[in-house]
Amino acid sequence: MPPSASHPFLHLLFLVLLVFPGLGAFAAAVGPRRSILRALDEGNGKPDYAVDLNSSSFDNVLNESPASFAIVEFFAHWCPACRNYKPHYEKVARLFNGPNAVHPGIILMARVDCAKKMNTNLCNKFSVGHYPMLLWGPPHKFTLGGWDSKQEKSEIQSIDDGRTAERLLNWINKRIGSSFSLDDDKFENENTLPWNASDPEQIARAIYDVEEATAQAFDIIVDNKRIRKETRVAFIKFFQLLVAHHPSRRCRKGTAGILVNFDDLWPSDYSNNSREGSLSHMQDGARSFSICGKEVPRGYWIFCRGSRNETRGFSCGLWVLLHSLSVRAGDGEAQQTFITICDFIHNFFMCEECRRHFHEMCSSVSTPFETTRAFVLWLWRSHNKVNERLIKVEKELRTEDPRYPKIIWPPKQLCESCSNSTSNQSGGMMPEWNEDEVFKFLVAYYGSTIISSYKDETITSSRKDESVVDDVITSNHAVAVPVGAALAIALASCTFGALACFWRTQQKNRKYLHQLHSLKNV
Ligand SMILES: Cc1cc2nc3c(=O)[nH]c(=O)nc-3n(C[C@H](O)[C@H](O)[C@H](O)COP(=O)(O)OP(=O)(O)OC[C@H]3O[C@@H](n4cnc5c(N)ncnc54)[C@H](O)[C@@H]3O)c2cc1C
């Protein structure tokens, strides 16, 4: 029987709620936070684009938002003017919130119902004196304190002229120098996309794309039954690399979970098992693991969003993931990381031409990489070789994304000191690089800028458990991670009484020692 991840968890959840009924409220509060990128359907058939916040979800949602700005509407559900204002607010929110956002990742539009008792203190904190009242500011600034109209030099600002959708959008356009229109539509927005999504500010949001690319890669592998006898090692090694160096904490945690259960999910005789029924059962088991958490964005592509439906997306996210991994590997890990990435692309990237070209580039390396620098620069050069080829191909075939044509990268606007000459990089001319500067730039761009702000607050684990998971998933000794993680968490759990021991009992069934043995053999 393949393991079902959900059963033990549901049992545990039930027990937790039984013992700590207050956690139910906590879970409800976490709910809206997780639905940050979703449009809600209130039952009238029309989804709400603006995100409903309350005193419990307010800080979490705003702190974790990838958007540069937020607008919060304070209203009261009994206020007739507010009810009439809602369609106006929604018209603007449609542009910025939800999976079909025309301009994602720029403005988070939210609302708080001040007529609900639980929100009284929150609304008082923001000196709400009339309904509806709109405030504007960087999302996290809303969580640092309140707002008062007399306050000077606050980054939170009252929107004084947003009474209709048109006026609100005009106010926004004036405030950030954009030219959004209420008629803007997804993927027909070539002329209205406000910023070059590859600017340094945008890369900070690429964490969402990296998470989405990771989840999509896992789906593709599972759906296409790519884990076979001959590919098991490549998969395990790549996942070990992710556990150690994925920029997103929740993906590190998810990949560790998959490795811990690897032998159950894909027993060594998995590919020999010819019965279609059991294969699809195994697929279901694998699918029940959320590699980057249950709420990983799907189809959002913020940094990697093309101006057309069919451009960019997954392969862009995959490149960003690979570069992020390369700058995180230490000097001693450079060669192993190189082999792991090459093997992963070769076995699991199902674009035939891509993996063939990449394999050729991997095979042409004759000297082992002894430093992070050497490997990071190799990957950057290889990506530029792909760019160089695609500049020509896409121009000829007219398949390029007009908003994001391939260029030799990084352009001068991103890194002034990276190249010495003024060659035509967008025309495919390779400039004279200053590789020390390029390396510094890549480390900053893919290292410190892309970090996960995700803070895991599962109701099933205590702080002590969490710190054990933290220690394990930030470990650099990837080979020891999966088994070590399981054992360490289980041991720590037992100090937290019956609930934790229940969980430990579930974990015990996962045959650690067998896994220890099989993973050590990898
Ligand atoms: C391993 C691999 C091999 C591929 N091989 C092929 C192929 O042979 N043929 C094919 O048609 N497509 C190939 N692709 C897909 C192709 O490279 C692009 O990913 C796709 O066309 C989408 O392009 P994009 O404009 O989103 O930018 P991408 O090329 O995907 O780049 C994503 C982002 O990375 C940054 N970037 C660009 N160049 C570099 C660089 N040199 N170093 C670091 N960062 C950079 C930029 O910010 C860019 O927006 C491959 C993809 C991968 C992951």
From TrEMBL:
GO CC annotation, single: extracellular space
Instruction: Give the protein's cofactors.
Output: FAD
Q: Which UniProt keywords apply?
A: Disulfide bond, FAD, Flavoprotein, Glycoprotein, Isomerase, Membrane, Oxidoreductase, Redox-active center, Secreted, Signal, Transmembrane, Transmembrane helix
Query: What Gene3D superfamilies would the database entry show?
Result: ERV/ALR sulfhydryl oxidase domain (1.20.120.310), Glutaredoxin (3.40.30.10)
Concerning Pfam families, the annotation shows: Evr1_Alr, Thioredoxin
Q: Which residues form the signal peptide?
A: 1-24
Q: Which GO terms describe its molecular function?
A: flavin-dependent sulfhydryl oxidase activity; protein disulfide isomerase activity
Residue span, Thioredoxin domain: 28-177
**Where exactly are the transmembrane stretches of this chain?**
479-503
Question: Which reaction equation describes what this protein catalyses?
Answer: 2 R'C(R)SH + O2 = R'C(R)S-S(R)CR' + H2O2
> Does the UniProt entry include the keyword Translocase?
no
**Residues in ERV/ALR sulfhydryl oxidase domain copies:** 307-409
Q: What is its main location?
A: secreted
- Name a single GO biological process: protein folding
EC top class, as a word: oxidoreductase
EC id: 1.8.3.2
Keyword Disulfide bond in annotation:
yes
What this protein is called in its record is Sulfhydryl oxidase
What species is given as this protein's source? Apostasia shenzhenica
Query: Which gene name belongs to this protein?
Result: QSOX1
